[in-house]
């Protein structure tokens, strides 16, 4: 699976600068961004993207940057059942998106939990929106029905977290489902967590399993 974006007018979303969602004049052309399935060999590039989120933000509640070997294992494990995508610009990986099990009971097989990370040095390129569109299309094609996002949240922004992720998902059609208070501890303070949901298919009787 490889998809190239030549026009980002429908995907002008950016988790790093949420104001770009409303102001398309700030968005530079997205021509040349290619989305493909990840492979374990991408792990080193993905760790480089992920590391600043672990070390400097509460966007992820992970404390330690995983090793390249551990990241490769995670990619391989995800691909056994779910899509794992990377976005490339001029041959360089600039973001990635994947889903995992929403819950391990079989009744939840049509629901997934989503994750998207974009290189923090990339601005105004719509990479997050392009990745999400590709991810959503892939999930629909496989028969998944519910996309769920677990998002760190704080009432008042601090140096480690703001509400960009929530607003990013709202722009993509997610709705707020629930909030858990002070459930994550990082950088010496407590953070909330919210769940957001997007329905991407019809819930019918006797649905075909997506895997």
Q: How would you describe this structure to a colleague?
A:
The chain is an alpha+beta fold. The protein is 24% helix and 30% strand. The protein has helices at residues 43-56, 68-79, 127-142, 164-171, and strands at residues 2-5, 33-37, 84-89, 92-101, 111-118, 146-153, 175-186, 189-199. Strands 1-2-3-4-5-6-8-7 form an 8-stranded mixed β-sheet, with helices on both faces. Strand 7 (175-186) and strand 8 form a beta hairpin. The longest helix is centred in the middle third of the chain and has 16 residues, at 127-142. It is globular, with a radius of gyration of 17 Å. Residues 6-29 have low confidence and may be disordered.
Secondary-structure blueprint:
Layout lengths: L1 E4 L27 E5 L5 H14 L11 H12 L4 E6 L2 E10 L9 E8 L8 H16 L3 E8 L10 H8 L3 E12 L2 E11 L12
Parallel strand pairs: 5-6
Antiparallel strand pairs: 1-2, 2-3, 3-4, 4-5, 6-8, 7-8
Helix pairs in contact: 1-2
Supply database-style keywords:
globular; 8 strands; 24% helix; 30% strand; eight-stranded mixed beta sheet; single chain; 211 residues; alpha+beta; 4 helices
